[in-house]
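Case study 2.
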Amino acid sequence: MEIPSSLIGQESPEELARRLNLQFHDFLLLSRALTHRSYLNEHLEALEDNERLEFLGDAVLDFIVGAWLYNRYPEMPEGDLTRMRSCLVSTDKLAEYGAELDLGRAMRLGKGEILVGNQLRPALICDTFEAVVGAIYLDGGIDIVRKFLSPLLTEAADDVIQNHKIEDPKSMFQEWVQAQGFSTPQYLTRNSSGPDHSKVFEVDVIVKEQVFGSGTGHSKQAATKNAALDAINRLGIS
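Prediction:
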Protein backbone atom coordinates (compact mmCIF):
# COMPACT_ATOMS: atom_id res chain seq x y z
CA MET A 1 0.00 0.00 0.00
CA GLU A 2 1.44 3.35 -1.01
CA ILE A 3 0.41 6.63 0.55
CA PRO A 4 1.90 10.03 -0.34
CA SER A 5 4.26 10.98 2.47
CA SER A 6 2.42 14.30 2.87
CA LEU A 7 -0.71 12.39 3.95
CA ILE A 8 0.86 10.03 6.47
CA GLY A 9 -0.14 11.03 9.99
CA GLN A 10 -2.32 13.92 8.81
CA GLU A 11 -5.50 12.50 10.30
CA SER A 12 -5.93 13.05 14.04
CA PRO A 13 -7.08 10.25 16.35
CA GLU A 14 -10.41 12.06 16.76
CA GLU A 15 -10.87 12.25 12.99
CA LEU A 16 -9.99 8.59 12.59
CA ALA A 17 -12.49 7.59 15.29
CA ARG A 18 -15.26 9.58 13.59
CA ARG A 19 -14.45 8.07 10.19
CA LEU A 20 -14.50 4.52 11.59
CA ASN A 21 -17.56 5.23 13.77
CA LEU A 22 -15.68 4.42 16.98
CA GLN A 23 -16.96 6.00 20.20
CA PHE A 24 -13.68 6.51 22.07
CA HIS A 25 -13.68 7.87 25.61
CA ASP A 26 -9.90 8.12 26.00
CA PHE A 27 -8.27 9.46 22.85
CA LEU A 28 -4.84 9.17 24.46
CA LEU A 29 -5.23 5.40 24.07
CA LEU A 30 -5.95 5.70 20.37
CA SER A 31 -3.14 8.21 19.93
CA ARG A 32 -0.73 5.78 21.57
CA ALA A 33 -1.96 2.96 19.32
CA LEU A 34 -1.04 5.04 16.28
CA THR A 35 2.43 6.03 17.52
CA HIS A 36 5.36 4.06 16.12
CA ARG A 37 8.59 3.99 18.12
CA SER A 38 10.34 5.94 15.34
CA TYR A 39 8.02 8.89 16.04
CA LEU A 40 8.68 8.63 19.76
CA ASN A 41 12.42 8.96 19.12
CA GLU A 42 11.89 12.27 17.29
CA HIS A 43 9.16 13.89 19.42
CA LEU A 44 9.80 14.41 23.11
CA GLU A 45 6.15 15.23 23.78
CA ALA A 46 5.12 11.68 22.82
CA LEU A 47 5.19 9.58 25.98
CA GLU A 48 4.76 6.00 24.75
CA ASP A 49 4.77 4.00 21.53
CA ASN A 50 2.24 1.34 20.53
CA GLU A 51 4.22 -1.83 21.24
CA ARG A 52 2.44 -2.75 24.49
CA LEU A 53 -0.97 -2.14 22.90
CA GLU A 54 0.16 -4.27 19.96
CA PHE A 55 0.91 -7.13 22.37
CA LEU A 56 -2.54 -6.81 23.93
CA GLY A 57 -4.31 -6.49 20.57
CA ASP A 58 -2.65 -9.68 19.32
CA ALA A 59 -4.10 -11.63 22.25
CA VAL A 60 -7.55 -10.03 21.86
CA LEU A 61 -7.59 -10.86 18.15
CA ASP A 62 -6.79 -14.52 18.77
CA PHE A 63 -9.69 -14.81 21.22
CA ILE A 64 -12.22 -12.81 19.22
CA VAL A 65 -11.46 -14.54 15.91
CA GLY A 66 -11.53 -17.99 17.55
CA ALA A 67 -14.92 -17.33 19.17
CA TRP A 68 -16.26 -15.72 15.98
CA LEU A 69 -15.31 -18.75 13.89
CA TYR A 70 -16.69 -21.18 16.47
CA ASN A 71 -20.10 -19.51 16.33
CA ARG A 72 -20.20 -18.80 12.59
CA TYR A 73 -19.20 -22.31 11.46
CA PRO A 74 -20.81 -24.74 13.95
CA GLU A 75 -20.08 -27.79 11.76
CA MET A 76 -16.45 -26.97 10.96
CA PRO A 77 -13.94 -29.42 12.50
CA GLU A 78 -11.29 -28.17 14.92
CA GLY A 79 -8.42 -28.54 12.45
CA ASP A 80 -10.17 -26.38 9.86
CA LEU A 81 -11.07 -23.80 12.51
CA THR A 82 -7.40 -23.58 13.47
CA ARG A 83 -6.32 -23.10 9.85
CA MET A 84 -9.06 -20.52 9.30
CA ARG A 85 -7.94 -18.54 12.33
CA SER A 86 -4.34 -18.65 11.10
CA CYS A 87 -5.46 -17.20 7.77
CA LEU A 88 -7.55 -14.46 9.37
CA VAL A 89 -4.88 -13.26 11.81
CA SER A 90 -1.79 -13.63 9.59
CA THR A 91 0.48 -10.61 9.21
CA ASP A 92 -0.57 -10.07 5.60
CA LYS A 93 -4.28 -10.32 6.44
CA LEU A 94 -4.05 -7.92 9.39
CA ALA A 95 -2.15 -5.54 7.13
CA GLU A 96 -5.01 -5.81 4.61
CA TYR A 97 -7.50 -4.88 7.33
CA GLY A 98 -5.36 -1.87 8.26
CA ALA A 99 -5.07 -0.82 4.62
CA GLU A 100 -8.81 -1.21 4.11
CA LEU A 101 -9.37 1.11 7.09
CA ASP A 102 -6.74 3.51 5.71
CA LEU A 103 -4.86 3.59 9.01
CA GLY A 104 -1.82 5.06 7.29
CA ARG A 105 -3.36 8.52 7.27
CA ALA A 106 -3.44 8.52 11.06
CA MET A 107 -0.22 6.65 11.88
CA ARG A 108 2.49 8.71 13.55
CA LEU A 109 5.85 7.73 12.08
CA GLY A 110 9.37 9.08 12.22
CA LYS A 111 10.75 10.80 9.14
CA GLY A 112 12.95 7.84 8.30
CA GLU A 113 10.00 5.46 8.09
CA ILE A 114 8.08 7.89 5.91
CA LEU A 115 10.94 8.47 3.48
CA VAL A 116 11.69 4.82 2.73
CA GLY A 117 10.10 4.67 -0.68
CA ASN A 118 6.97 6.43 0.61
CA GLN A 119 5.64 2.96 1.28
CA LEU A 120 4.21 1.55 4.49
CA ARG A 121 5.44 -1.94 5.26
CA PRO A 122 2.71 -4.57 5.71
CA ALA A 123 4.30 -5.62 9.02
CA LEU A 124 4.11 -2.02 10.27
CA ILE A 125 0.46 -1.68 9.28
CA CYS A 126 -0.26 -5.05 10.90
CA ASP A 127 1.36 -3.89 14.16
CA THR A 128 -0.67 -0.68 14.15
CA PHE A 129 -3.91 -2.55 13.50
CA GLU A 130 -3.19 -4.85 16.45
CA ALA A 131 -2.45 -1.81 18.63
CA VAL A 132 -5.72 -0.15 17.60
CA VAL A 133 -7.60 -3.34 18.52
CA GLY A 134 -5.87 -3.28 21.91
CA ALA A 135 -6.87 0.36 22.43
CA ILE A 136 -10.49 -0.34 21.47
CA TYR A 137 -10.58 -3.21 23.96
CA LEU A 138 -9.21 -1.11 26.83
CA ASP A 139 -11.53 1.78 26.03
CA GLY A 140 -14.79 -0.02 25.28
CA GLY A 141 -14.53 -3.71 26.10
CA ILE A 142 -14.75 -6.97 24.20
CA ASP A 143 -18.19 -6.40 22.64
CA ILE A 144 -17.04 -3.17 20.98
CA VAL A 145 -14.04 -4.98 19.53
CA ARG A 146 -16.29 -7.76 18.23
CA LYS A 147 -18.56 -5.22 16.54
CA PHE A 148 -15.56 -3.45 15.01
CA LEU A 149 -14.02 -6.66 13.63
CA SER A 150 -17.14 -8.46 12.44
CA PRO A 151 -17.46 -6.81 8.98
CA LEU A 152 -13.75 -7.33 8.29
CA LEU A 153 -13.85 -10.97 9.36
CA THR A 154 -17.01 -11.75 7.38
CA GLU A 155 -15.50 -10.53 4.11
CA ALA A 156 -12.13 -12.17 4.78
CA ALA A 157 -13.61 -15.54 5.81
CA ASP A 158 -15.76 -15.68 2.67
CA ASP A 159 -12.62 -15.04 0.59
CA VAL A 160 -10.67 -17.76 2.39
CA ILE A 161 -13.37 -20.36 1.73
CA GLN A 162 -14.15 -19.35 -1.85
CA ASN A 163 -10.48 -19.37 -2.84
CA HIS A 164 -9.51 -22.55 -0.95
CA LYS A 165 -7.08 -20.66 1.28
CA ILE A 166 -7.97 -22.85 4.24
CA GLU A 167 -6.37 -25.76 2.42
CA ASP A 168 -2.70 -26.14 1.56
CA PRO A 169 -2.56 -25.10 -2.12
CA LYS A 170 0.85 -26.72 -2.64
CA SER A 171 -0.51 -30.10 -1.53
CA MET A 172 -3.63 -29.69 -3.66
CA PHE A 173 -1.60 -28.82 -6.75
CA GLN A 174 0.88 -31.63 -6.05
CA GLU A 175 -2.00 -34.15 -5.91
CA TRP A 176 -3.39 -32.86 -9.22
CA VAL A 177 0.03 -33.05 -10.87
CA GLN A 178 0.56 -36.62 -9.67
CA ALA A 179 -2.91 -37.62 -10.87
CA GLN A 180 -1.97 -36.39 -14.36
CA GLY A 181 1.21 -38.45 -14.31
CA PHE A 182 3.43 -35.38 -14.46
CA SER A 183 6.73 -34.82 -12.69
CA THR A 184 6.94 -32.98 -9.36
CA PRO A 185 6.23 -29.21 -9.61
CA GLN A 186 9.25 -26.93 -9.39
CA TYR A 187 9.03 -23.53 -7.70
CA LEU A 188 11.35 -20.94 -9.22
CA THR A 189 12.00 -17.53 -7.63
CA ARG A 190 11.78 -15.25 -10.65
CA ASN A 191 12.57 -11.96 -8.91
CA SER A 192 12.91 -10.21 -5.55
CA SER A 193 12.68 -6.49 -4.96
CA GLY A 194 12.45 -3.91 -2.20
CA PRO A 195 14.54 -3.18 0.89
CA ASP A 196 15.72 -6.01 3.14
CA HIS A 197 13.02 -5.31 5.74
CA SER A 198 10.22 -5.41 3.17
CA LYS A 199 11.24 -7.62 0.25
CA VAL A 200 8.70 -8.86 -2.28
CA PHE A 201 9.37 -12.23 -3.90
CA GLU A 202 7.95 -13.39 -7.24
CA VAL A 203 7.70 -17.16 -7.75
CA ASP A 204 6.57 -19.31 -10.69
CA VAL A 205 5.42 -22.92 -10.36
CA ILE A 206 6.62 -24.99 -13.30
CA VAL A 207 5.51 -28.41 -14.57
CA LYS A 208 6.95 -29.96 -17.73
CA GLU A 209 8.83 -26.71 -18.41
CA GLN A 210 5.57 -24.75 -18.45
CA VAL A 211 4.52 -22.04 -15.99
CA PHE A 212 1.23 -23.11 -14.40
CA GLY A 213 0.96 -20.28 -11.88
CA SER A 214 2.71 -17.24 -10.42
CA GLY A 215 2.61 -15.62 -6.99
CA THR A 216 4.11 -12.84 -4.93
CA GLY A 217 4.68 -12.49 -1.19
CA HIS A 218 6.84 -10.94 1.49
CA SER A 219 8.58 -14.30 1.97
CA LYS A 220 9.50 -17.07 -0.44
CA GLN A 221 7.11 -19.36 1.43
CA ALA A 222 4.17 -16.97 0.95
CA ALA A 223 5.03 -16.38 -2.72
CA THR A 224 5.30 -20.15 -3.32
CA LYS A 225 1.92 -20.74 -1.69
CA ASN A 226 0.35 -17.99 -3.80
CA ALA A 227 1.88 -19.44 -6.98
CA ALA A 228 0.29 -22.82 -6.22
CA LEU A 229 -3.02 -21.10 -5.45
CA ASP A 230 -2.83 -19.25 -8.79
CA ALA A 231 -2.28 -22.57 -10.58
CA ILE A 232 -5.25 -24.11 -8.78
CA ASN A 233 -7.49 -21.20 -9.73
CA ARG A 234 -6.37 -21.28 -13.37
CA LEU A 235 -7.05 -25.02 -13.61
CA GLY A 236 -10.35 -24.84 -11.74
CA ILE A 237 -9.20 -27.45 -9.20
CA SER A 238 -11.53 -27.83 -6.21
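The first helix runs from residue 13 to 19.
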